[in-house]
Amino acid sequence: MKPLEVAPDIAEASTLPSSFYKDPQMYERCKEAVFARSWQFVGDTDDLKAPGTVKPFVLLEGCLDEPLVVTRDYDDHLHLLSNVCTHRGMLVAETGDNARYLRCRYHGRRFGLDGCFQAMPEFEGVKDFPSPKDNLPRVSFERWGRDKFLFASLNPVAALSEVLKPVQERLGWLPFSEFYSEPSRARDYLVRANWALYCDNYLEGFHIPFIHASLSTAIDYGNYTSEIYDWCNLQLGVAASGETAFDLPKDSPDYGKRIGAYYYWVFPNLMLNFYPWGLSINVVRPLGPELTKVSFLPYVRDSGLLDSGAGAGLDRVEREDEVVVEAVQKGVKSRFYDRGRFSAAREGGVHHLHRLLARELG
To answer: Is 178 left (phi over 0), alpha (psi -120 to 50) or beta?
Structure first.
C-alpha cells in the first residue's frame, strides 16, 4: 500500500486519494495508528463524585471497542482501568454501581478500585502469584475544563494539555464547572459515509452559503476565518448583525468582535462547538469504511440562548450536512475521481486534517 502524501503548501497540495474513504485496509490501519493514539472524549465527572463509584464503558464503540471502567476509590482518587479480568478475560464490571471493590463474577477474582489485585480463590500453590500482571492495567486519562470533562487514550501521541492548549488559552475564562449536560437535546446520527469525509465537511465554511441557509443568516461569512494549530484548528464564526454573540472578557484576543461561535476540531474525530448558550461536543464514531455515528452532546451554560444565533437549529444543520456527505461518499467511489485541489482561502482545515493523517499513517 502506497504511503499517503499531501503537500505542505496548500496552494500545491491535492486531497487524500479517494481510496482512503472506501478501503477496508486503510480503515483498519486508522484504528491503531490514529484512533488508539488520540484522546477520546468519554464524558464528564458529574456522575463520578461519590467514592465507590464504578462506571464501565466501551472506548470508541464500533471502532476501538476497548472495555474500560472508571472508578473513584475511597481515597477520593479517580482511576481509568481495563475492564478485562487478568485471569480469563471476563468483563469485571458489567453494570454501573457503587462498590467497595471490583469482583469478577466468573471465578471470583477481586481487585481494589485502584485496579490492584486483592484475592483469588483456588489459587494455592500457583508459583510467582500474584505478580504485577495480575493487576488491572491502567489507561491514560486526563481531565480538562476545570476538571469537568474526561478524556482517555490507549497510547497517546501527545499530552492532552498540549492538544487542547489553544482552546484553553482562548476560552479558559469560561465557567466550565457551571455547564450542565442536557440529555433531552442530545442526538445520535447515523451517516452512511466514511468518518473522515464527515470531518472534511465540518472543517470548512466554504459550503455554508450553498448548503446551510439558516446558519448563513446567523454568521458573517465574509469574516469567517480559520486558525491552524498542532493538533486542532479553529473556525471563528463572527455573528451577523443582530444575532446573539459572546460577552467576551477584556483580555480575550477577540474582545471587541461579535463572535457567534468558536468551532474547534480536535484530531482526529472531536468537535468542540462553543456558543453563547454553552458547548456542543460532537464525537465522530467510525463504524466501518462507509458508516459513521455522530453524537451531539450539549452542555448548557445559559438555556435562554439555546434557540438563538449560530447555536440554534443544530439538528437541521446536521441533517443538511448528512445529505451532502452521503452524496460525496457515493461520488468518491466513481472510477473517474481520485484527488481534488484545495481552496487556499477556505479549506485550510481540511488540508490540516489530511496532512495529519498522512503523517500518522506513515
So the answer is: alpha
Please give the C-alpha separations between residue 134 and each of 110, 129, 141, 221, in angstroms, as whole numbers. Answer: 10, 8, 21, 57
pLDDT digits (tens, 9 = 90+) for 163-212: 999 999 999 999 999 999 999 999 999 999 999 999 999 999 999 999 99
| Cα gap 36→182, rounded to integer Å | 28
For the chain, the residue count is 362
Torsion on CA atoms 276, 270, 190, 152, rounded to nearest 10 = -120
* Global pTM value: 0.96
Q: Which three cell numbers stand for residue 153?
A: 487514550
Beta-bridge mates of residue 91: 84
Q: d(Cα 312, Cα 314) in Å, to the nearest integer?
A: 6
- Which residues on adjacent β-strands are paired with residue 232? 266
- Cell numbers placing 225: 476565518
Packed helices 195-202 and 314-331: angle between N→C axes, nearest 10 degrees: 120
Q: By three-state DSSP, how is residue 138 classified?
A: strand
The radius of gyration computed from the CA coordinates of the chain, to the nearest angstrom, equals 22
Q: Which residues pair with 191 in a beta bridge?
A: 292
User: Which helix (DSSP H) or strand (DSSP E) does residue 172 occupy?
Assistant: none
Question: Can you tell me which residue has the cell 439555546?
Answer: 306
